[in-house]
Amino acid sequence: MSRTVTYSPAHTIVPTYECFNRCTYCNFRAEPLESPWLTLPQAEKRLQLLQTQGVIEILILSGEVHPQSQRRKAWFQRIYELCELALALGFLPHTNVGPLSFEEMAQLKQVNVSMGLMLEQLTPSLLTTVHRHAPSKVPARRLQQLEWAGELQIPFTTGLLLGIGESEADWVETLEAIARIHSCYNHIQEVILQPYSPGNKQSWDGEVFDVTKMPELIAIARSILPDEIALQIPPNLVTKPDILIACLEAGARDLGGIGPVDEVNPDYPHLQHQTLTEILAAAGWQLVQRLPVYPHYDNWLPQTLQTAVKHWRVSH
Questions:
Q1: Which of 123, 109, 224, 231 is closest to 178 using CA atoms?
Q2: Of all helices (H) and strands (E), which one includes residue 158?
Q3: What share of the chain is helix, strand, coil (3-state, %, to 5)?
Q4: 63 closest CA partner among 87, 39, 85, 30
Q5: What predicted TM-score, i.e. pTM, was given to this entire model?
Q6: What is the pLDDT of residue 199?
Q7: Are 308 and 114 in contact (CB under 8 A)?
Q8: What distance in Å separates the CA atoms of residue 131 and residue 128, rounded to the nearest whole number?
Q9: Torsions phi, psi of 80, nearest 5?
């Protein structure tokens, strides 16, 4: 068994924090019209500073502008242009901005090497609790995104948010749904297992997820999902070295995009790269960089993106 664990050297760009959803556990969102949008000149200045910092992936992560909003088209255009800008400056974009229309996904495929959307949980009862004011968290809508990504041949990342009111049986149901859709399209690169971690902006009084359950859950996920889907855990949310190593022993093989700030969990900074490397090495694991698209999906990309990816593969 390989003793390597991968990560993507990443930086997150946020077009806007405004979001029409009001998930009660959220530490990211701002009220609509209360978060200024990132301008292209601002983004260009920030990205230029990253060109010598070893960053490969630019994660475009945004709050959601309502699909019926008059500003939706401008919001989507800003996301598209940020992806174009990242590509022009030598980075590889990965976009995760909530549910999109089929047409929006098809357009973003042209400027993204991969995309993502968390399923979180398929538990219907959450629509009366933490998702009561979150219209885009309807499970069927998010499952539709996974299917559309498959139809469009978009390398895709999805995942579970753990500890928001679901049961262990719900974990299995959500994982089985991912496996079922992947069996049709073979497009899921990674499944993230993200423990809920309280922050200072949320309105919900939920408790931190018990990370000692993570190795057991990873073993369950590994038994349900096909081997080619990588299991990803965020090291800033699984901070106890013994639990982190136990997660790897159970079958997790990726630590996701690691950058200076976790925008979704801003209260939980990532470990310094050297510290993380030493923790893993002490248990016989080697930390290895990867691109935000896995090699067996390269030929799914438009030719211009294949060229950009090939450049990174050759140089690394």
A1: 224
A2: strand 156-162
A3: 40, 15, 45
A4: 30
A5: 0.94
A6: 61
A7: no
A8: 6
A9: -60, -45
Nearest to 221 by CA among 145, 158, 293: 158
Distances (CA, A) of 212 to 240, 264, 295: 9, 22, 33
pLDDT at 180 over 60: yes
For residue 300, the Cα-to-chain-centroid distance in whole angstroms is: 20
Q: Is the separation of the CB atoms in 31 and 315 below 8 Å? A: no
Phi, psi at residue 61, to the nearest 5°? -125, 125
- Distance, in Å, from the CA atom of 300 to the CA atom of 284, rounded to the nearest integer, reads 34
**pLDDT higher than 70, residue 284:** yes
Confidence of residue 130 (pLDDT cuts 50, 70, 90): confident
Model confidence pLDDT, tens digit, residues 286-295: 999 999 999 9
Q: How does DSSP assign 9-51, residue by residue?
A: EEEEE-S--B-S---TT-SS-B-TTSSPPPPHHHHHHHHHHHT
Task: Give the SS3 label for residue 5.
Answer: strand
How far is it, in rounded angstroms, from Cα 55 to Cα 92? Answer: 9
Q: For the segment 195-251, what is each residue's pLDDT rounded down to a tens digit?
A: 987 666 656 566 778 899 999 999 999 999 999 999 999 998 888 999 999 999 999
Q: Is 218:193 a contact under the CB 8 Å cutoff?
A: yes
